[in-house]
Design a protein that fits this description.
This protein is mostly helical. The protein is built from 15 helices and no strands. Helix 3 packs antiparallel against helix 4.
Length: about 290
């Protein structure tokens, strides 16, 4: 991700599936780190630190200010960054109220909807129905606070759908990781009114500030940088299919790191969502061509 020829050559030698798996583990280790910060800072402030810190790291590493940016490139980058930062914000509001694995599974309504819109087949529609059933299983019988978290996850899922569409536009236009870093800084400015409340406390506590930046590096710099590399090599629907790994990774990390033991009902709901993604696997080529 340094932008050097050697780094790109190394990334091309590794399969996109393996790269994605590394990103998945990193992403939810970052989310677990964020959860541990919620005792001291609001989820919105942690989201702001995550996005701003990650964006700053990438821009400095890439020296993105040296790139010539056209107006249309900045517009697409800004839209991508706002979708990404807002997705992070609502995801943190969700995992502050419910288990990590559940929140990630519920989010998947967004990516699955992208596939359904792109293909409009009976198979993709059945996948969406199964995913909705999984979400109802996860949220329908939960406590009110967890149901509010599920609502935030659904909002994050809608923003995730935008991230997939806009992310492909940024990746394939050549902006790639530069677009990611600059986009996150723009997104951080947009969500800053929501996250500014505890920002003074974070800036006055180096360990909290470092934790927020660490969450950003683990959850944004590494996995979203990998996303940009993977998106360049895979069709959009194939990328969405690989994301079946994410609810599993999140559940396992929530279990090991946060001691979040899922119930039988929750496991059933997560399995339903993962099955929905797998059922929709035959939409790969069509979705890559249909969705702009």
């Amino acid at each position: 991700m340094s932008g050097t020829g050697g780094g790109r050559s190394w990334a091309r030698r590794v399969s996109p599936e393996a790269l994605f798996a590394v990103g998945a583990v990193s992403q939810y280790l970052g989310a677990a780190t964020a959860v541990e910060l919620f005792d001291e800072l609001s989820p919105m402030t942690v989201a702001l630190l995550r996005v701003a810190g990650a964006g700053a790291v990438l821009v400095v590493l890439r020296r993105s200010w040296r790139r010539h940016w056209s107006r249309i490139e900045l517009a697409w980058t800004a839209a991508f960054g706002v979708a990404l930062a807002s997705m992070n914000l609502f995801f943190y509001l969700a995992i502050a109220r419910g288990p990590l694995g559940n929140s990630v599974a519920i989010e998947f309504i967004g990516p699955i909807a992208v596939a359904v819109i792109g293909t409009r087949t009976a198979r993709s529609t059945s996948a969406l129905v199964l995913a909705v059933a999984g979400v109802v299983t996860l949220a329908g019988f939960a406590a009110p606070e967890a149901q509010l978290g599920a609502l935030f996850s659904l909002i994050a899922g809608a923003l995730w759908a935008g991230y997939i569409v806009l992310g492909h536009r940024v990746a394939r236009s050549g902006m790639a990781v530069d677009g990611l870093g600059v986009g996150m800084l723009i997104g951080a400015v947009v969500i800053s009114p929501a996250g500014a409340g505890d920002l003074g406390s974070a800036l006055g506590a180096p360990l909290l500030l470092a934790g927020g930046v660490a969450a950003g590096v683990l959850s944004n710099v590494i996995p979203y940088g990998i996303d940009q590399l993977v998106m360049q090599r895979l069709a959009r629907a194939r990328f969405a299919l690989l994301q079946a790994l994410l609810p599993v990774a999140a559940t396992l990390i929530g279990l090991v790191w946060l001691s979040q033991v899922p119930s039988v009902r929750e496991v059933a709901g997560i399995v339903a969502v993962v099955a929905a993604i797998v059922i929709n696997r035959e939409s790969d080529q069509m979705l890559g061509d249909v969705v702009p």
